[in-house]
Amino acid sequence: MSHDPASSEWAASRGEKWLASIVGTEAMLAPIDQPLLHALQLTEPCTIADIGCGGGATTLEMLRAAPPGSTAYGFDISPALIDFARQRQPNIAFHVADVAKTPPPQLYDRLTSRFGIMFFDDPRAAFANLARWLKPGGRFAFATWDYPAANPWIKDVGRIASQFVELPPLDPAAPGPFRYAEASVLLTLLELSGFADLNVTNWQGPLAIGGGLAPAEAATFALGAFSSFNELLTAAGEPVYHQAHQSLNAHFAQKRQNGIVQLDASVHIFTGSL
Ligand SMILES: C[S@@+](CC[C@H](N)C(=O)[O-])C[C@H]1O[C@@H](n2cnc3c(N)ncnc32)[C@H](O)[C@@H]1O
Question: What's the pTM value of the predicted model, to 2 decimals?
């Protein structure tokens, strides 16, 4: 499992890994839906496409918040995640699609994505394709992660894991969660793709690890669900995993509030229209 998953990995092993931790991960990421919703400006009945929708939690949240008469659709490259989304929310149309290449099934009033647009093999082509999905006058809102330094929820886990195993270096140009930490990179891509009225704001707040877990469970969750820490530590042997877990547990114990572990996060919210 690479440190920086590309779309092709999401279609297979990475999608299945996301699915294995989906309940805790979605609960942890739920606070990001509010700034996305605010940025989407769902003021009238509209059609919404959720790009890289995963298990569809954000798709459902958008539909709940949209005015009556609105419809929402979810698109993801992972068949396993789309199966899960369909079973959980049979009233929403979910489709397996590589949104980087697939022509739009119809035109949408709104495009949204919670962390689903950072993994394209060819971002220039992918965003040019996505521009074809939006109706003229339509609006998009995409969430991406700020730099790791501004995201202790992952930076702290990586720092502790790196005391026990060697982590692959982050390549900011490669597909991965921090690819658009430098917001100007995505703004340039979006502009080149024909999107207009571009803007980026920042959301900062705490995220409850695994949706609200005590330190030991949060350490298990973080090592298992984030990046490839679990694979690297397990390959190094059970004693190494155990030491890393203990160390993370001790760190998380200092971050406990009201019995659960919460760490700060920082997210870019990109908006624009066509
Ligand atoms: C970090 S997960 C976020 C999932 C979901 N939006 C959420 O917040 O729960 C990234 C998602 O993007 C999807 N993805 C990556 N590349 C894609 C592509 N080219 N086309 C469609 N989906 C893609 C992955 O399969 C994965 O579900």
Answer: 0.96
